[in-house]
Amino acid sequence: MSQKVYTQGSAFPPTKPGVLRLYSMRFCPFAQRARLVLQHKNIPHEIVNIHLRSKPEWFLALNPLGQVPVLQIDDKIVPESTATCDWLDDVYPENQLQPTDPYRRAWDRVLLEYSSKLIGPYYGAIRSTDASEVESKSEEIKKHMQFFEEQLKAREDGPFFGGSKPSTFDFFLWPFYERLPMLPLLKDNPALDIEADKIPTLTAWAKAMRELPAVKATSLDASSHATWYRQTLTGAPDYDMFLKED
Predict the structure, then answer these.
(1) What percent of the chain is predicted at pLDDT more than 70?
(2) How far is CA 76 from CA 72, 91, 98, 100, 244, in A?
(3) Model confidence pLDDT, tens digit, residues 204-224
(4) How confident is the model at residue 25 (pLDDT cuts 50, 70, 90)?
């Protein structure tokens, strides 16, 4: 199936019985969460990419919120990034990602809730045109990264939040960590660098994450992310950017 996006007016690509489908968007960090889990657990699937500024009518019928990711298999539909990942881990239990220890599972939920404090200033920094506000948002991001640094350090069984193997939360956090190095490029301001030396435990975590086949299969470099967000800020992003002609 083509990686190119389906837009308003596109015909619905017929589903196949028993074939798992992910509705996604190649540059979306939330959709990347589901893609990471699918790749890590080697779950057979197909991907349909959606133009999020010109959504097909049939996609809105599947998910009226118009957001990705959405999973579909036969008559079952699961939207939302954390729900899709948890569902995949439950339905495909091999290589389990969710912690079996109730205390750690509870704290992974705490970390997930806290990650919203990171996501808010991340998008705020991207959208702002005021240099001082961007730097303020960057400082917020660095403060929240220190929280994750201390939480991971306290677990003492790394390199992952899941210990010797990644957990669901590792894949929840990664898409946003992956994109942080693009901020200095996007805003042409070296002061926005995440200062890896100040978060050594997370820096070691990131190195370990980059070695995972799932991360290698779904990640883009900082320059590519910056190019995408520059286009997004102009109001006319190319959803098929970097794809070769079919």
Answers:
(1) 99
(2) 6, 12, 22, 26, 32
(3) 999 999 999 999 999 999 999
(4) very high
pTM recorded for the entire structure = 0.96
Burial class (CB in 10 A: 0-12, 13-18, 19+), 234: exposed
Q: Residues 116, 137, 225, 199: is their CA dihedral positive or negative? A: negative
Hey, how many other C-beta atoms are within 10 angstroms of the C-beta on 52?
18
Phi, psi dihedral angles at 225 (to 5 degrees): -60, -40
Q: Is the pLDDT assigned to residue 245 strictly greater than 70?
A: no
Q: Could you give the CA distance from residue 215 to residue 218 in angstroms, rounded to a whole number?
A: 5
- Work out the angle between the directed axes of helices 29-40 and 81-91 (0-180°, nearest 10): 10
Report, as residue numbers or ranges, the catalytic residues. 28
Note the CATH number of domain 1-97+236-246: 3.40.30.10
Tokens 């919120």 — which residue? 65
| CATH, domain 102-211, list 2.40.50.180, 3.30.565.10, 1.10.3720.10, 1.20.1050.10 | 1.20.1050.10
Backbone angles phi, psi at 228, to 5 degrees: -60, -45
How far apart (Å, rounded) are the C-alpha atoms in residues 245 and 192? 35
Give the whole-angstrom CA distance, residue 153 versus residue 180: 20
Instruction: Summarize pLDDT for 94-104 with one digit per residue, the tens.
Output: 999 999 999 99
Confidence band for 80, pLDDT divided at 50, 70 and 90: very high
Cis preceding-peptide flag for 44 (omega within 30 of 0): no
Rg of the chain over all Cα atoms, to the nearest angstrom:
18
